[in-house]
Design a protein that fits this description.
Blueprint: H1 3-28, E1 42-47, E2 51-56, E3 67-72, H2 79-89, E4 93-94, E5 98-99, E6 110-113, H3 118-127, E7 135-137, E8 154-158
Parallel strand pairs: 3-4, 3-5, 3-8, 6-7
Antiparallel strand pairs: 1-2, 6-8
Length: about 180
């Protein structure tokens, strides 16, 4: 086998892999922008024409094993504690609620997740009445509004849009000001 023939085959294989990856990536994202939007579906990926591999969709962990840090970025008193209590009632392990780093306020809530906890972030966003798009991977380094995520698997940054803060979807109930967070 000549060197140019092997190089041509290698380039062809790389081209096919890139094309296949682009097609799978385009088809893998649903309307909400996330792969495996919480359903128990499987994805079948066909490699060349010789084998088929099935990968399970991301599954949420038992809530009791998910450590959640709730940060209040709404500018309203007591929101982090109320949100933390809501998640505690759903059996999540919550860290001490706090205000967003540097007292920052945000308009839009974000549910950040560490690698492997994307399905949990989706479930938490749903429990809090937030859009699925609120779940996002926690960047490295964390955003200034988060500061130190401690040992949390999921960090909830509650913004003014959250129902618990009186945002869209909130019931007619008023927010209490009993707690500092």
């Amino acid at each position: 086998m000549s060197t140019s023939s092997a190089a041509l085959r290698g380039a062809l294989l790389i081209g096919v892999a890139i094309a296949l990856g682009a097609v799978l990536l385009a088809q893998g994202f649903g309307d909400n922008g996330f792969i495996g939007s919480g359903s128990n579906t499987s994805t079948t990926v066909k490699h060349s024409d010789t084998s088929t591999t099935t990968a399970p969709a991301a599954q949420a962990h038992d809530p009791a094993t998910v450590r959640v840090l709730v940060l209040n970025g709404s500018g309203k008193t007591g929101i982090a504690k109320a949100t933390s209590d809501q998640l505690k009632a759903a059996n999540y392990t919550t860290l001490d609620p706090a205000n967003a780093a540097n007292g920052a306020t945000v308009d839009t809530s974000i549910v950040y997740f560490q690698a492997g906890y994307d399905a949990d972030a989706q479930a938490i966003a749903a429990k809090l009445g937030l859009a699925p798009s609120a779940a996002q991977a926690l960047p490295v380094p964390p955003p200034p509004t988060v500061g130190d995520p401690k040992d949390a698997n999921v960090v909830v940054l509650v913004g003014a849009d959250a129902p618990v803060a009186g945002g869209p979807g909130a019931s007619g109930a008023t927010t209490t000001t009993a707690a500092a967070n």
